[in-house]
Amino acid sequence: MLFENIIIALIGAIILYTALQGAPPLPSKPAVIETMRRFLEPKPGARIADLGSGDGRIVMTLAEDGAMVDGYEFNPFLAFWSRRKVKKAGLQTHARIFRKNFWSVDLSAYDAVVVFGAPHIMERLAKKLRKELKPGAKICSNAFMLPGWTPILKEHGVFLYQL
């Protein structure tokens, strides 16, 4: 019983810390993922980053179209789980999952970024994206807008921006 309580407390602490760093782990709905896919129009060889990639469903969807997709997930349980899913789907050549805090990642090599962030990080994230992404890069945000930015498309709570 004590061991179970320790594990539950540990998982709770990881979820809380993850939420404070970005957003709590909430999976994107299939309609949202399909909207992101349409908005981004992933082409073979395009480089896409999913910031807070959760269980990897967006990473895998975009990788199926031939894009090179890197997921950054701080939660060790979700990173482990999504790596297993990527391997099981046979997408290792196009999808990678890093157990890493995306704030420490240089995004300059990416053509597009996907994020399902919480409102409290969006202003800081907007500055990071503007500083690091190259002109023409696309940003797809689920549910929350980037403050001060005007989306070029909006559907199903997904906002598409382009630098």
Folded structure, characterized:
There is one protein chain. It contains five helices and seven strands. With 163 residues, it is α/β, with parallel strands linked by helices. The protein has a single domain (2-162), classed as Rossmann fold (3-Layer(aba) Sandwich), CATH 3.40.50.150. A seven-stranded mixed beta sheet has the order 3-2-1-4-5-7-6. β4, α5 and β5 (138-142) form a beta-alpha-beta unit. The model has no long low-confidence stretch (mean pLDDT 88).
Topology:
Elements: H1 2-21, H2 30-40, E1 47-51, H3 57-64, E2 68-72, H4 76-88, E3 95-98, E4 112-115, H5 119-132, E5 138-142, E6 153-155, E7 158-162
Parallel strand pairs: 1-2, 1-4, 2-3, 4-5
Antiparallel strand pairs: 5-7, 6-7
Summarize this structure briefly.
This protein is α/β, with parallel strands linked by helices and 163 residues long.
Mean pLDDT: 88
Order of helices and strands: HHEHEHEEHEEE
Can you tell me the CATH topology?
Rossmann fold
Count up the domains.
1
Question: Structural class, please?
Answer: alpha/beta
